Write the structure tokens for this entry.
Amino acid sequence: MKNIKDTIKKLFDPIRIFGTNVGSIQLGFPDDKTSSTNTLQDSLYVNRALDLLKMAVSDVSFSLHQITNVKGEYETIDTHPVLDLLYRPNPLQTKTEFLRVMVANFAIFKEAFIRIVLDASGNPIALVNMHPADITIKLGADGLPIYYYSTIAGEVTLPAAEVIHTIVTGK
């Protein structure tokens, strides 16, 4: 296992969500030695780091803008179904709860899957986090991914248009 101290510090490089810098977090360690020999201590550091990350991200606020001309000037849109969905992603979670689950999946599994639930007319009505371990991805005949989501009730097949899939690339 890599040095847990370096891993956590890398995780807490300035955090960027939707292009917005929401800050950086200073972490304290008892000494400069690697703490990977103490599993309980490692676990406490990782859990605390993850809690700090989830708290920082859940404080993000959303705004929607419409560009009004070729100069790039814009106006802020105060009410819109997209904003409603971002602030109340589904009937069981607030924005904060939803973002905390998403960030935990992203930090632990290096990817997050969000299901876009549509009404009968094809309009988005909810966003639901899906656990990465419950997802299988295969390419469809058209070259687009098809997501297979295993639930207690059975497997749900979702086209790419109904899934937001974020993944860590690089190191």
Remarks:
- The longest strand covers residues 111-118.
- The helical segments are 4-11, 39-58, 81-87, 95-109.
- The CA atoms of residues 33 and 138 lie 43 Å apart.
